[in-house]
Amino acid sequence: MTSEQVADRTAGDAAVQDGSGSGKEASEGYERGLGNRQIQMIAIGGAIGTGLFLGAGRAISKAGPSLILAYAIAGLVIFFIMRALGELLMYRPVSGSFSDYAREFLGPFWGYVTGWTYWLFWVVTGIVEVTAAASYVQYWNKSIPQWVSALVFTVILYFVNLISVKLFGELEFWFSMVKVTAIIGMILIGVGVLTIGFSDAGDTATVTNLWNDGGFFPHGVGDTLMTLQIVMFAFLAVELVGVTAGEAKDPEKTLPKAINTVPWRIAVFYIGALIIILAVVPWGEFMPGVSPFVAAFQKIGLPAGAGIVNFVVLTAALSSCNSGMYSTGRMLRDLSLNGQGPKFFGQLTKKGLPLRGTTFSAALMLVGVVINYEWPGKAFDYVVSFATISGMWAWIVILVAQLRYRRKADRGELPQSAFRAPGAPWTSLFALAFIFMVIVMMGIDKDARVSLYCAPVWAAIMWVSYLVLKKRNPQAFERKDYSLTK
Asked: Which residue has the higher pLDDT, 259 or 112?
């Protein structure tokens, strides 16, 4: 029995629940319209958002140059997570992704919790991103209320998601291309300032800025550790590649290629960019809430460049929010097909789009408009920590599911993946330990602690709703047997 046969059997089970027939295409129903070029740029763009462009300003003010090391270590952990996800995807590429693997390797209850938690993560992240986008607008016109910009962006992105998945991929490709081009351009200009010395910044720009002002750890190692939640938030959404598995044209080739680009993406777009920025602008000049990219161009004396970068980070935030609307609709449909969500969300449009789930999610994202109206100055800080803890849940599930899958595959109960994670299980265990350390740091940080207060409330909601749904539909929570020895 091959991996493809296992996937077909799983799809057939979902099709029976859906009442749509049998076979993979009947249960999925999506258009495989995302090509290699689009998948690659979605993978790159998913990791470049407000966490880097806006959150990094706050992190630099707290950790100084040592933030570079924090991004490097966290980036290594992210690579371990993505390789674990890649192993699962090549075993069975499905649109349900994390929640589907949780059902198989942890149990139906955990699949239910994972699906709804990941959906919640993207709703909250959408609020974060639209909040950031609204703040960027004020760079040009402070008279426009932040909540007005948030409302307009939410409505526009909702209508963008009414198009075909192929056009969605094309739009994301160009969104990502803008971000990538801008970062590379900023790096090249920064290198020019450091080597040739043009502009006023050339008089003070030097790599010694990385350690001259209070050392590499100006506030100590402890403060650097406290920025890890901001760093991890910057990497949230790299796992979005897993959600595209059901709509990728050639997942066996495109997904591993996208995952293997993670190391150089992090090296260039995060570590490389931060090294250049902190060499050009002394870390003490950065302020929370101000994009370090914009600050760097202002220091160089290119006001037009700062405006361009502000436009780029605006598109970065909108791109991430757009991806959020994309994933929430698919996650709600996966829950619906498995009997763990309202049947209402199971229907697709003629273009293969989960319109109902997307509409419901976009409506909840309008909460971001209220937040921007009531607390415009604190909106980003209020929601970023909760987005981090809910997003990291998906990473924990990926790692635990991969560990259990590897044990079963090694025993011959399941087929081996064609894309095995190197160094597993030790790399997966290290990544899990790192994530739990970040959660502990969030508990120590009084500003981030609110997310940990919310977590038990969400867990209680999940448990009570699980008991109600299981009583109404016991079959939806029956454990399936995927083993080869069945």
From this structure: 112
